[in-house]
Amino acid sequence: MTSTAIDPQALDEAAHWLMCLSEGEASEAEQAAWAAWRTSSVERERAWQRAELLLGKLGGLPPALAMSALDRPADPRRRAAIARLALMLAAVPAAWAGWKVSDEQAWMADYRSALGECRELSLADGTRVFLNTDSAIDVRYDAQQRFIRLLRGEILVHTAIDRQQPPRPLRVGTREGRMQALGTRFCVREQGGRTYLAVLEGAIRIEPANARPGAAQVVRAGEKTDFDAHSSRAPQAVDASISAWTQGMLLADRMRLEDFAAELARYRRGFIRCDPQIADLRVSGAFPLSDSQRSLNMLVATYPVVVKAHLNGYWLLLTTA
After folding, report:
1. Measuring CA to CA, which residue among 13, 14, 15, 22 is closest to residue 70?
2. In the 8-state DSSP scheme, what is residue 4?
3. How much is the pTM?
4. How many other C-beta atoms can be found within 10 angstroms of the C-beta atom of residue 39?
5. What is the pLDDT of residues 13-45, one digit of tens each?
């Protein structure tokens, strides 16, 4: 995707269509109009590609803009929201370089998983690593350490005893810092500039990349935390079902519907959005990650939720009947 400037008018129109489609109420005629608009010029197609890039990186419209999208079309707040969104689209190239580097690193990684795939690896020392959907790691073993760098996504690590003498520590690194395993099984996920750690067995010592000296924290079995490059949060209790994805399942225990939609969306192409009016609906059950349509059918059969599909199923809205 080129980073050269795009006509502001095309970006404004792309922002308008994002608002319309995110509402989930676009008629067949409106969807046809969107398709005709998109293909009517190279500049409009470029604007829409940039809109899709922004949505993919942000995981959807920012809440403040999404709420404005629900107002009447003539509402001045909606017009202001579209203007703010158009400005965001214009600013995408400033951050594109960093995203592009990250994507290229993941593409050239030692091990990767495809969208919707859960992959199991056995490393040279017997350590087992599970890669969740759309994840990538590099592995570097030398005389001093066993090092796994999480480039994207989520992994579960089950450490093996190192037979080399003296035993080498096993460490996992992300952009936010490093974690050293103390004989353990643990999950690491990187998202939105934070690293999320859940310890299922043993313990982990975490060191944020830019933390002050002596700021390392030990997280023990049954605990979870998250951290950025400067500091970490106090540990909290973790639910053992956090690793259910290794068995191809999403276990929901009174999970907010909005969070459920975001989690399921990680395993399929396109977008799943939730009507803010039912975002706090609590969902429970065991849902298969390899078949998102089956999971959605189970949801609809159990809860007062309907799924409205747009753009041939690329854009789904969870809403009420």
Report:
1. 22
2. S
3. 0.71
4. 11
5. 888 887 777 655 567 787 788 888 988 998 898
Give me the residue label for tokens 């593409």: 107
Higher pLDDT residue, 263 or 16? 263
Q: Assign residue 254 a region: left if phi > 0, alpha if psi is -120 to 50, beta otherwise?
A: left
Rounded CA gap, 76 and 36, in Å? Answer: 27
CA dihedral 96, 97, 98, 101 (to 10 degrees): 120
| pLDDT above 90: residue 93 | no
The pLDDT tens digits for 190-234 are: 988 899 999 999 999 999 999 887 778 999 999 999 999 999 999
Q: Read out DSSP for 271-284?
A: EEEE-GGGTT-EEE
Domains present along the chain, CATH in parentheses:
8-107 (no CATH), 111-241 (2.60.120.1440), 248-319 (3.55.50.30)
Q: Is residue 80 very low, low, confident or very high in pLDDT (cuts 50, 70, 90)?
A: low
- Residues 286 and 251 sit within 8 Å (Cβ to Cβ): yes
Question: Which helix (H) or strand (E) segment is 171 a member of?
Answer: strand 170-174
Which residues neighbour 130 within 8 Å (Cβ) at sequence distance 6 or greater? 118, 119, 120, 121, 155, 156, 157, 246
